[in-house]
């Protein structure tokens, strides 16, 4: 790279500079038109004022032939000429990192866990996302990702923070993201864009994160730095597809921040929606998950009532929805698990400001869903004890992760594991299987996992805790007539199997 100043009127095709009266010029080679260009220009000029006096930037080939002229304002707006860093390489960050690697020539990634980084470079992912391994393999082979546990080694112009508010000891906790804000402040420079991606309390970005950064850097957002919020809203197990199809909702702190955010989002994603404020974008994410938790709590509770009257709540809800478009009642389940639905209603109930405006329904939905899970654990145990009069009872549970479709291996708040633990505490021998059974470590989970096709008739009870279309074929191809002197039962809360078929092969059938 060269920075030249001249008063000549001539243009030398094979020279090191492009000359025009009373202007400074910066020339670059074609192979320098990459994500490192923006930082190279700034590191060369040192000050923004120097950049503003550059005029056109000349592009030349290896033989120093003139190829093109670029104005710095164009480079400033093009995301492909800036370095983007994903902060936090977990369920949210890694899929985003690899998606961006398909858009740009290089993407940086930061995580405090150096072992996780080594595993990623060795093409080992700690969770499952359909198709993610193929993108990772391609990104590594093409050297399109640069990962580090040291922020100083991967300074960037755009930082997307994939950490959020946590629930620790049943209380809202922001220590993790607050600590990250202080560390990030040490490497920020003027004109950097910071985007929060993780789920946070309403008001957190403006009232906490912004203040930490401005205090630590002495920069001001909207003038020296830019701040935005763009929540992750992907379903686990199908993130690769949904990052393309689900609209990215986003907003910025100030008018300038919104413009910079829009510039980034519109060049990066296929679908997007600008929100009026940071708080609106924060609330959209929390609203979506809180609504689902509330919806499930309703169906679970009315199903519990139906059970008390001796009929199936799931069948009752099917009939209530049938031909009645105003109803969109969810199907009941054994319980509501997973990472997001169990914490986000609590986060929504704890805003940063205006504490009198609380989401009080979170206490109801969470209590209702926890209550229903315990109700079902007791019910399953009673069904087994009442019907299977054996000293040693073997149970097979369909489900290991918190859900089975889309396929994933996330066991955080897994209802299936919770049910299994409860049964084991009551001296019942439990085995587990799932669509991705071969991807689990039974020693880590401390459970018995069936990874191959087996004769399911060896079990006294089969509990279909999670729902997956393949479970129907797996059971239909294996179940046979129960010829033993003991009863065998199937607990089918999702109504996967035909009740009459199950009873015809001398198995007892139960659902929700």
Walk me through the structure.
With 512 residues, the chain is an alpha/beta fold. It folds into three domains: 2-79, no CATH class; 83-276, NAD(P)-binding Rossmann-like Domain (Rossmann fold), CATH 3.40.50; 368-510, NAD(P)-binding Rossmann-like Domain (Rossmann fold, 3-Layer(aba) Sandwich), CATH 3.40.50.720. It is 38% helix and 16% strand. The chain is built from 18 helices and 20 strands. The strands form four sheets. The chain has an eight-stranded mixed beta sheet, sandwiched between helices. A six-stranded parallel beta sheet has the order 17-16-15-18-19-20. The longest helix is centred in the middle third of the chain and has 31 residues, at 278-308. The protein is elongated.
Label the CATH architecture of the largest domain.
Answer: 3-Layer(aba) Sandwich
Largest sheet: 8 strands, mixed
Query: Runs with pLDDT <50, length 5+?
Result: 1-23
Count the strands?
Answer: 20
Write the CATH homologous superfamily of the largest domain: NAD(P)-binding Rossmann-like Domain
Strand content: 15-25%
Order of strands in the sheet with the most strands? 7-6-5-8-11-12-13-14
The termini sit apart by 70 Å
Note the total helix count: 18
Radius of gyration: 28 Å
Mean pLDDT: 91
Helix amount, in percent? Answer: 25-40%
What is the CATH class name of the largest domain? Alpha Beta
CATH fold topology of the largest domain = Rossmann fold
Total count of domains: 3
């Amino acid at each position: 790279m060269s920075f030249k100043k001249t008063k000549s009127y001539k243009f030398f095709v094979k020279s090191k500079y492009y000359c025009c009266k009373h202007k400074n010029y910066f020339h670059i080679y074609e192979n320098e038109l990459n994500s490192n260009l923006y930082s190279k220009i700034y590191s060369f000029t040192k000050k923004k004022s120097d950049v503003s006096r550059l005029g056109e930037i000349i592009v030349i080939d290896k033989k120093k032939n003139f190829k093109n002229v670029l104005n710095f304002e164009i480079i400033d707006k093009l995301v492909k000429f800036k370095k983007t860093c994903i902060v936090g390489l977990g369920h949210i960050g890694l899929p985003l990192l690899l998606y961006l690697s398909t858009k740009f020539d290089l993407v940086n990634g930061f995580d405090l866990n150096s072992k996780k980084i080594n595993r990623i470079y060795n093409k080992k992912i700690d969770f499952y996302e359909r198709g993610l391994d193929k993108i990772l393999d391609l990104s590594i082979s093409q050297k399109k990702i640069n990962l580090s546990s040291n922020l100083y080694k991967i300074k960037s112009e755009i930082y997307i923070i994939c950490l959020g508010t946590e629930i620790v000891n049943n209380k809202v906790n922001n220590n993790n993201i607050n600590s990250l804000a202080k560390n990030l402040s040490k490497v920020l420079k003027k004109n950097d864009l910071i985007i929060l991606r993780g789920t946070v309390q309403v008001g957190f970005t403006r009232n906490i994160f912004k203040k930490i950064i401005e205090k630590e850097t002495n920069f001001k957002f909207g003038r020296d730095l830019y701040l935005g919020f763009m929540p992750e809203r992907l379903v686990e197990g199908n993130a690769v597809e949904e990052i393309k199809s689900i609209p990215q909702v986003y907003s910025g702190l100030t008018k300038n921040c919104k413009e910079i955010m829009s510039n980034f989002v519109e060049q990066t994603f296929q679908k997007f929606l600008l929100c009026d404020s940071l708080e609106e974008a924060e609330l959209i994410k929390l609203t979506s998950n809180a609504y689902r938790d509330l919806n499930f709590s309703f169906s679970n509770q009315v199903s519990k009532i139906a059970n008390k009257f001796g009929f199936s709540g799931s069948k009752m809800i099917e009939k209530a929805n049938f031909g009645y478009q105003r109803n969109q009642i969810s199907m009941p389940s054994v319980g509501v698990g997973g990472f997001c639905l169990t914490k986000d209603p609590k986060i929504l109930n704890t805003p940063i400001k205006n504490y009198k405006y609380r989401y009080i329904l979170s206490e109801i939905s969470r209590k209702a869903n926890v209550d229903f899970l315990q109700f079902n654990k007791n019910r399953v145990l009673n069904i087994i004890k009442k019907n299977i009069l054996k000293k040693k009872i073997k149970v097979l549970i369909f489900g290991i992760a918190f859900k089975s479709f889309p396929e994933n291996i996330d066991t955080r708040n897994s209802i299936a594991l919770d049910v299994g633990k409860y049964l084991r505490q009551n001296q019942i021998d439990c085995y587990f299987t799932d669509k991705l059974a071969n991807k689990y470590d039974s020693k880590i989970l401390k459970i018995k996992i069936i990874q191959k096709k087996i004769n399911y008739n060896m079990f006294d009870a089969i509990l279909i805790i999670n729902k997956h279309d393949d479970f129907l074929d797996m059971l239909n191809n294996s179940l046979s007539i129960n010829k033993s002197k003991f009863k065998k039962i199937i607990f089918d809360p999702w109504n996967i199997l035909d009740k009459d078929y199950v009873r015809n092969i001398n198995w007892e059938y139960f659902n929700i």
